[in-house]
Specification:
By secondary structure, this protein is an alpha/beta fold. The protein is built from ten helices and eleven strands. A hairpin with a 6-residue loop joins strand 9 and strand 10. The chain binds adenosine-5'-diphosphate and magnesium ion (MG). Adenosine-5'-diphosphate binds next to helix 2, strand 9, strand 11 and helix 8.
Length: 303
């Protein structure tokens, strides 16, 4: 009987032949990508909001400094590539320098900093589309020598855009912190950010109420300019922990504008203590989340 030379029948599986092409490698898991991009970083915490101007960058910087003041190794990545403000808030004058394995982040007040503003001539704006933003996230993660860190705080732009999406898809995140004012208009948009993180399987560690009230320095009267208790109530409704509140305070704004955040400038002031309490609550949330995760046998956010 002659051999059938017609080759494999349509639809039949190709035979694994010696010398044939190797089977395609499975796509790396987020944990493997993280291991290759930021191998020494333990917890990655994006700080997000729906609206702009609610104080994400102020809260990110002060929380990062509060964590460092408690002895943690901390980095802050300014993910707001269109409106980078972390170097201003931290009063950074230096630029990152090249190291043997990537850019060395600038160090300021004991934390490591990277921001798009280091790479933009003063006054110039970034005019980029989505794919470039995704590459920037790659660069800020894998192209920077973060070294060994306990916490990498990522200050995000407002909303639910490309940067948020890229970050969530590239590496496993420990959990997001949502910042909002207690105003309904801000909270409604903050809920969209919550929805996005949940959809992308990033846990939410909690919500911070910024500009929660104003204490009049002359008469001591408490003004609830944006309403009262909105973030706590929204947190309860959505099953999100309330991490604490920061007053609307002129000194916080002044400290940020002159590059000496409140936690550095007046660490024992009531304003700084409010930031430090939030950092403490955040650490407690991370620890309890890690325990829950270990108990449920899930591997996604156990380190
Ligand atoms: N609790 C606060 N009290 C007073 N001013 C604040 C407070 N939080 C933020 N600010 C000021 O509000 C402005 C917006 O804050 P920012 O942190 O840049 O917001 P976002 O990053 O959400 O756009 C800044 O001028 C900042 O100094
Ligand atoms: Mg900002």
């Amino acid at each position: 009987m002659s051999a059938d030379r017609s080759g494999p029948k349509r639809g039949s599986k190709p035979l694994a032949m010696a010398g044939g092409p190797p089977p395609p490698r499975p796509a790396p898991t987020p944990a493997e990508v993280r291991e290759s991009l930021i191998p020494g970083v333990k917890y990655v915490i994006p700080v997000a909001s729906g609206k702009g101007g609610v104080g994400k960058s102020t809260v990110s910087a002060n929380i990062a400094l509060a964590l460092a003041a408690d002895g943690a190794r901390v980095g802050i990545m300014d993910g707001d590539v269109y409106g980078p403000s972390i170097p201003l808030i931290l009063g950074v004058k230096d630029k990152p320098t090249p190291g043997p394995n990537g850019l060395l982040p600038v160090e300021r007040y004991g934390i490591k900093v990277i921001s798009m503003s280091f790479f933009l001539p003063p006054g110039e704006a970034l005019i980029w589309r989505g794919p470039m933003l995704s590459k920037t996230i790659d660069q800020f993660l894998g192209g920077v020598e973060w070294g060994e860190l306990d916490y990498l705080i990522v200050d995000l732009p407002p909303g639910t855009g490309d940067i948020q999406l890229s970050l969530c898809q590239k590496i496993p995140l420990t959990g997001a912190v949502i910042v909002s004012t207690p105003q309904d208009a801000a909270l409604r948009v903050a809920e969209r950010a919550v929805f996005m993180f949940q959809k992308l399987k990033c846990p939410i560690l909690g919500i911070v109420e910024n500009m929660s009230h104003f204490l009049c320095p002359s008469c001591g009267n408490r003004e609830e300019i944006f309403g009262s208790g909105g973030c706590r109530k929204t947190g309860e409704r959505l099953g999100i922990a309330f991490l604490g509140e920061i007053p609307l305070d002129t000194q916080i704004r002044i400290d940020s504008d002159r590059g000496r955040p409140t936690v550095i400038d007046a660490p024992e002031s009531p304003q700084a203590l409010a930031f430090r309490q939030i950092a403490e609550n955040l650490v407690a949330r991370i620890e309890s989340q890690a325990k829950e995760t270990a108990r449920s046998g899930e591997t996604r956010i156990t380190f």
